Amino acid sequence: MRISQRLLVLFLVIATGFGGFFYLFFHIKREEMRIYGESDLSQRKGSIETVFKLKADNQLALLDDYSLWDETAKFIKSKDTRWADKNLLPLLSAFSYSLVQVYDNKNRLLYSGHAEGIKGLEELVIDSEILDSLAVRKKLYYHSRLGNLILANSIATIHPTADNGRETTPMGYMLISHAWDSRYLAELAKSLGYDIRISLTPPKIPDAEVSQYNTKVIHPINSWYDVTIAWLVFYSRNPFLTELRALGNMIIFGTMGFILVFLVIQFVLIQQWISAPLKLISQSLKEASPHAILPILNRGNEFSAIASLIDNFFRQQTELVMEIEERIRTENLLRDMEEQTRKILLTSPESIIVTDLQGRLLTANDETLRLVAVESESQLTGRDFYILELVPPENSEALQQMISDLRSGGEIKNLEITLVDAQGTHFPALISASVITDSGRKPSKLVFITRDISELKSLEIKLRQSQKMESIGTLAGGIAHDFNNIITIIAGYIALSAGKIDSHPAARTDLDEALKACLRAKSLIGKILTFSRQSERKEKPIILADLLEDTIPMIRASIPTKINIVSEINSFSFVIVDPTEMQQVLMNLASNSYHAMRPDGGTLSISLNEVHGFELIGLSPEVQLEQDYLHLGFADTGKGIAPEIINRVFDPYFSTKPAGEGTGLGLSIVHGIITGYRGFVIVDSAPGEGCTVSIYLPVSNHIETLPRQEPQGEIPFIPASLLMVDDEPALAELFSISLQNAGYRVETYSSSLKALEAFADHPDTIDLVIADITMPNLDGIQLASKIRKIRNVPVILYTGFCDSQIQARAEDIVVDKLLNKPLLPDELVSEVKELLFRLRP
Hints:
By secondary structure, the chain is of the alpha+beta class. Helix 15 (544-558) crosses helix 16 (579-596) and helix 19 (752-761) packs parallel to helix 20. The longest helix is centred in the first third of the chain and has 65 residues, at 3-67. The chain is flat, with a radius of gyration of 61 Å.
């Protein structure tokens, strides 16, 4: 057994001895308190019993005085109540009794007097059984209950004064009762020095009362039948018992405190003098460290001598360990460098090849095996494989020159070169190379680090194509804006000319046809702008047939006329799509069909039908059998698609067109858009038989409700002065003439700065400002903002290209109307009339 364990056993033995002594002392004090408490309780019970017996004796003695009285005996015969009221009734007030009654020897009640305020006494009659028992017992003291009251009853036989022994036959019976009400109990408690409570049920003393009083006496109250009818509970505080208990507790806690202090001092001394030094020595040996024994090293005792020996041992051990560790450190460093080099070689994402000075391969990592398309390194190192074999013949001379430069001390960094793998596939790569020297700083090996940049080149092409598509969209918007101005001028002047030649019907008809062509151009430009505009997806229920009919003219305008377009629309159901995205799908499919039918042309058939889900079983795993679908078909009579590549038509950047003619994104975009609407796309084709692309979209249960259109009459003309601003003079002049013909006074400017100066000179004369948004110096929105800082007037703005940014800027300054070009003069006049009528005072 260890010393610390032996010391612990000793401490436990001492602690057990003290604990046993304390337990014995505590038990003795507790018994002493118990005996004293029982003795005190017994004495108090005796005192209480004596008091109750004394009260009963006094009540019986008073009863004897009246029941052994000749006058009372005479009352039995005379039954004179006046005598009774005069002689018996005073007992209630003089002696605080509650009831006095007299019975004859036949148990008949002759007289009953009772105290006021106690209900039920006037009806109280003694049981005949109790009266009959007096023939033997002569007089009796007992208790009875009257409701919640306890009555202390004294009853005796009535005899003449001479018959003190009550030997003659009783002439009658006399009862005196005392009701134990709250006043009586209060007087009794005061005289005895107790708190008294009466209980009609067996008393249960609450914990609060147990802790409040240290003496409790329960006195049962029995009836004539020896049945307990109530209990009196006496509570009292015994100051001597409290002081004795406090003194006992003080002695107990003092003793316990002394024992605890003694044990703590003993424990601390053993811990400091023996256990702590032994623990430090044990810790030092266990941890093989001399630092733990430093606190006891110079104390001059036995433990200090042991600590000195241990310290010397550790010093010698440290010197030996340092020598061993230095040798191990050197070996580990070499091993780590070797392992690190091997891990870098094997796990590097770039190809690493080590060759001799002639370029013969010595080792290669896994990435090299992947690049050159071989399965194991032995396929390269098992024969004389030279790095020159990794480049096409036309690049061999350049690589040989690179090796010569490396041997001369040069290095290569990120040189782009074309490599070839074992299958003959060429791929672009970046190569870096340097020379490895031996211990004499002489070149011994060459290391080549190569990175395949095929994916980087592909991403570069994709980025360039994406930027080209973005530029095309921006260019389309710009061209459409300028073209809008031209169409607006042409259409406007055609409309003005048509109004001047009413007498030439043929010429008027020609101008109407020209105007119709302008309106078709206007519609086409609007669709181009919608198609080229970038925005967030906004899905909503639309009738796909309506969108198809709107898009076919765009398709017709974008492909040659030698391609015949046939459409067959058999369903007008709703689908939930983004109209712009769906229009992009239609244009992409039409473009693919056109390219497939070059150069001879052919027929593009567009169909729209509604089918049930169960009819599409086997076409796609996404089919929902209970769902109805719209089937949109694009069928062309082109060259078709070969079976071996038809499964790749949805791959991004895969294209069957010649280089430079396609992005390879058309069907990929179509597939992504349609699957986003929970639909699917099926391509069916064979070489020489054309191609059919089938799109299936879930039918929506949406039901369109058109708002009720209230009939409107002719808007009345309201005279006004207008400010017309457009940087295109011809367009400004056209709108000005139309507005003047309508009856308005118009000031026309082709410079926004001059228009602002004119407005500032006479702001009160202008009722409405009309301006183009796209203008130099100040655009229409800036002009409207500055004008409104001078005076708040209505503003109409129009533009040939309205994107989300222009829309937001116009909303910020609260433009009254924002119109899109091409805008015909009559349309502008109508908008002006409507706005002035709506804003009239």
